[in-house]
Design goal:
Blueprint (H helix, E strand, L loop, with lengths): L2 H27 L15 E10 L15 E11 L5 E4 L11 E4 L4 H35 L2
Helix pairs in contact: 1-2
């Protein structure tokens, strides 16, 4: 794998973690949403990663000489949790049913915060990898001077 390909792999990881963070933030923001446009409470969403071939615009010249393709990551799907919502007894709530129960999203905001920290750290790790490759490229150029 060339140095430029490793930049593309890290960039794909950054894009995937950014989208994961967006979904997690949406989950946290809607933790108490009892009414959506689709009807019913908000449904928690999770991203599904998949391995994906990435190409680097810089390494296209070298593709004739390289056999292996670089493997990065992408989002294959965003799964919606269709489990039964959590029911709480709140008879005065505008969304309460005839028995006084309100359907709330079934989620754990603390778990989503931990997942968000993991996405942030993964994003930072990809930035560090790109920075290390950039430094290697710079040192290689300095050697040829």
């Amino acid at each position: 794998m060339s140095l430029f390909s490793s930049i593309s792999v890290s960039a794909s990881g950054m894009a995937a973690q950014r989208e994961r963070a967006e979904v997690l933030v949406e989950n946290i923001a809607n933790a108490d949403t009892t009414r959506t446009a689709e009807g019913g409470p908000y449904r928690r969403r999770d991203v599904v990663f998949q391995s994906d071939t990435v190409g680097s615009p810089f390494s296209s010249i070298f593709q004739n000489h390289m056999d292996a393709q670089s493997q990065g990551v992408s989002i294959s799907d965003i799964k919606v949790d269709n489990s039964d919502p959590e029911r709480r007894y709140l008879p005065g709530h505008p969304d309460a049913d005839k028995d006084g129960y309100v359907a709330f999203p079934k989620m754990n905001p603390a778990q989503d915060m931990v997942d968000l920290q993991g996405a942030s750290r993964s994003y930072q790790a990809n930035i560090s990898a790109i920075s290390a490759v950039k430094d290697m490229i710079q040192k290689s150029i300095d050697l040829f001077r």
